[in-house]
From TrEMBL:
This is HAD hydrolase-like protein. Keywords: Hydrolase. The keyword Hydrolase applies. The keyword Cell inner membrane does not apply. InterPro entries: HAD-like_hydrolase_sf (IPR050155), HAD-like_sf (IPR036412), HAD_sf (IPR023214), PGP-like_dom2 (IPR023198).
Amino acid sequence: MSAPVVGFDLDLTLIDTRAGIAATYRALAERSGVAVDTDAVVSRIGIPLAEEVAHWFPADQVDTAVQTFRELYPAHAIEVSRALPGAAAAIAAVRDQGGRVVVITSKLDRLATAHLTHLGIEVDAVCGNRFGDGKVAALREYGAHSYVGDHLADVRSARAAQVTAVAVATGPYDATALAAAGADVVLPDLRGFPEWLARAPIAQDSPNATR
């Protein structure tokens, strides 16, 4: 049987990308001449890139702006982003139970991997360009035990995939909102994850297919 899997979101779950995302949008605004309110952008981290870009660019320019943002991102966002408190210990806790860690994120694989490599965070797989139903499919594909995220959409994806929804209040939503969305457990941050996992051991069998 494949090793059990815990899925983690990336932005504002494992790493704090706020400064890097804001810097990249400032560079995009400078290059394009289109004004962007980076405070508003940061308050919505977690939604798909094209959806955020559409707040600022005309519809016929969104695809180009998304491509430009992704080109600018490595130079502006990787070095300034930081691991969130408890990230390394959370991953270690999964490994200590013989599990695997899969990062399931709306970021492209290469950008997510660049962040993880820069911060020295080792995971077993990265599944990028996923949001909503895409995360549901990934959780099922990997046979996940649980999914850890900071966004209401992460909670909804976990519940739709019938895995344990673990929410951390390190993103745009507080504990009350995450609980109301249906999270099975809400933690202030990842520092509480190892203790929770010790009380909720990774299931050795899953209703989802494993890979």
